[in-house]
Amino acid sequence: MRSESDIVYGLHPVLEMIRAGRPIGKIYLALHKSEKESEVIRVYARQQGISLLLVNKDQIARIAGTTQHQGVAAVVASESYQDLDALIAVSIKRKESPFFLLLDGVEDPRNLGAILRTAEAAGVHGVVIPKRRSASLSPVVGKTSAGAMAHLPIARVTNLSQTIDQLKKDNISIVGMDAASKISYLQVDLQSPVAIVVGGEGGGIHQKVLERCDQVISLPMRGMVSSLNVSVAVGIMAYEVLRQRAK
Fold first, then answer.
1. N or C, which end of the chain is more exposed by having fewer CB within 10 Å?
2. Is 174 exposed, middle or buried (0-12, 13-18, 19+ CB in 10 A)?
3. CB-based contacts of 101: which residues, under 8 Å, 6+ apart?
4. 71 φ/ψ sector (left φ>0, alpha ψ -120 to 50, else beta)
5. Do the strands 173-177 and 194-199 form a parallel or antiparallel pair, or are they unpaired?
6. Buried b (16+ CB within 10 A) or exposed e, 26-40
7. CA dihedral (166, 171, 172, 176) positive or negative
8. What end-to-end distance do the CA atoms of the chain give, in Å?
9. In whole angstroms, what is the distance from residue 54 CA to residue 52 CA?
10. 126-184 pLDDT tens trace
């Protein structure tokens, strides 16, 4: 677990941090900002006794490290990674069949943020990322996820293959996505406990991880483009899980 602070910027990410109950040490708000969302932030800061500093946009840009801050930035306790048992506990609490997402080498923080946004919206119970060859939770990921990072349990593991073995012991089926597979995602039963494994940009799933998958499926491609962005592929699979479980 980490204990240092991070900067979260953007109206929606900061609001989601507030709604998720994350400890916030200080909020920077642009002068003359009067949108409804910023008023919510003002009221929250006043009620919680959080230091609210009214500064100009250039100062916020320096704090956030970007001009895409929407006039607000907050100093929050760094996002804590969960362990695998905590992710499993989420599905138990919801009384739902487990549904996890395992990311093997997603190194682009914007892709990771987009994946987390889709995963949270689709009701994924938790996401697992490896410590090596993966983007870590960061302000960029938080901004791209539109605040979903604050609500979605995320585990960071040393060895993804060992994690898969542990999930199998809990009777969770491992389904990998690989363009070379001849099995369509529409042919797989996703109603039972499942963990979907997706590979990183360009390289796909590592062979050792792929060999541990119970099934390997692909998304049919009918056009000239041979692959989809990983966040788009995750979206298709996540909502296929929802579709099947809604029957």
1. C
2. buried
3. 115, 119, 124, 126, 127, 128, 195, 196, 198, 234, 238
4. left
5. parallel
6. bbbbbeebeeeebee
7. positive
8. 39
9. 7
10. 999 998 888 877 777 877 887 787 788 899 899 999 999 999 999 999 999 998 899 99
